[in-house]
C-alpha cells in the first residue's frame, strides 16, 4: 500500500515560501546529487497539490519536480476554474471535495505507489485527518524571514514525529520523519 | 579571533518556543545533552535576551530537592557556572547567579567583548529545556540565572 508523503524545501527559519509566495530564494540552493528527490520520484504514483502551490506553478511554470514527474496530479480547491490545470505539458485534475476523498482519489490514481502532497495547507489538512504517513523536508541554508510557514496552526498541542533519517545533500539537510508511528 | 554564534533548539516547523514560551518539547535526550556540553566548553561568554532567561528562571520549583541529577546535567551545570552571562533587558531589575544585568546596547557590548579571546562566544539560550535548567539550580553550589521581580 502506498504512503502519503509530504515533500518540501524549507528555509532554516521555517518558511516553505517567501513573502507573496516568492520561491526565488531556493533557486540557487545546491541540492547535491538529489538522491532523495530521485527516490521520491521513483516511489510517487500521484501528486496531491494545494491551491497556492498550483498558483505558483501557473505563475512561474517550474513544473512539479521541474517537469520530471509525468504522472497524474490533482489540485484541491473549492473554486475550480473550468479548464483543468496543466504543468509542463501534463494535464491534471481539479478536485472540489473533502481532504479524505481527495487523498482517496490520489491513492487510487497512484495504484499502490506513493501519493506526494505539495503545499503547507493541504499537508496540514492531511496530517490533521490522520492521512499523512511521512514528512520529507529539505532544509535550505537560507533565512527568509517572512512568508508561508511549514506548519501554521494556533492553539494546538505539539505534534510529535519520529525521526527516520537525516542526510546532507549538497547544501541542504534532508530530514525525514514518520507521522504515523509517533 | 572569537566567533559569535547564534545557537537555538528549534522545532521542525521553525519555532524556538511554543505559546507562553513553552519549551518542554525541546527537552534534550542524553546524546543532545552531551553535544550541548561539548559546545558549551568551547565558549567564553553567553549573551542572553531576557525572554529566554525568563523562561529558564521561572519554570520549575527550585526549592524542590533533587539529590542526584544525571551526570550530563551536572556537567552542564559546571560549565554554566563558569561562564560569564550578560543579560540584556529593558525590563528586568535584578538577576541572580553568575548573570550580569545590562540595560545597555547588546551589539556594542559584544563588539567590545573579549576580543582577544580565542574561544567561542555564544548568543541566545542553550537548547536545554526550562525544566532541566531548573533542575540545575538544585545542584549544590550552582545557581541558574533567575530574574526577580
Helix and strand arrangement:
The complex is a heterodimer of chains A (182) and B (149).
Chain A: E1 4-11, E2 15-17, H1 35-43, E3 44-49, H2 51-60, E4 73-76, E5 86-87, E6 90-91, E7 93-95, H3 99-110, E8 114-118, H4 120-128, E9 134-140, E10 148-149, E11 162-169, E12 172-178
Parallel strand pairs in A: 1-8, 1-9, 3-4, 3-8, 4-7
Antiparallel strand pairs in A: 2-10, 5-6, 9-12, 11-12
Chain B: E1 4-7, H1 30-41, E2 43-49, H2 50-58, H3 71-82, E3 85-88, E4 94-95, E5 99-102, H4 106-111, E6 120-124, H5 130-136, E7 147-148
Parallel strand pairs in B: 1-6, 2-3, 2-6, 3-5
Antiparallel strand pairs in B: 4-7
Helix pairs in contact in B: 1-3, 2-5, 3-5
List keywords for this structure.
heterodimer; A: 182 residues; alpha/beta; eight-stranded mixed beta sheet; two-stranded antiparallel sheet; 4 helices; B: 149 residues; five-stranded parallel beta sheet; 5 helices; 31% helix; 19% strand; globular; disordered C terminus
Characterization of the model:
The complex is a heterodimer of chains A (182) and B (149). Chain A has 182 residues and is α/β, with parallel strands linked by helices. Chain A is built from four helices and twelve strands, in the order ββαβαββββαβαββββ. Chain A has helices at residues 35-43, 51-60, 99-110, 120-128, and strands spanning 4-11, 15-17, 44-49, 73-76, 86-87, 90-91, 93-95, 114-118, 134-140, 148-149, 162-169, 172-178. Chain A has an eight-stranded mixed sheet. Chain A has a two-stranded antiparallel ribbon with strand order 2-10. In chain A, strand 5 and strand 6 (90-91) form a beta hairpin. The longest helix of chain A is centred in the middle third of the chain and has 12 residues, at 99-110. Chain A is globular, with a radius of gyration of 15 Å. The mean pLDDT of chain A is 94. With 149 residues, chain B is α/β, with parallel strands linked by helices. Chain B is 31% helix and 19% strand. Chain B contains five helices and seven strands, in the order βαβααβββαβαβ. In chain B, helix 2 (50-58) crosses helix 5 and helix 3 crosses helix 5 (130-136). The longest helix of chain B is centred in the first third of the chain and has 12 residues, at 30-41. Classes of the chains: A alpha/beta (182), B alpha/beta (149). At the A-B interface, loops of A face loops of B.
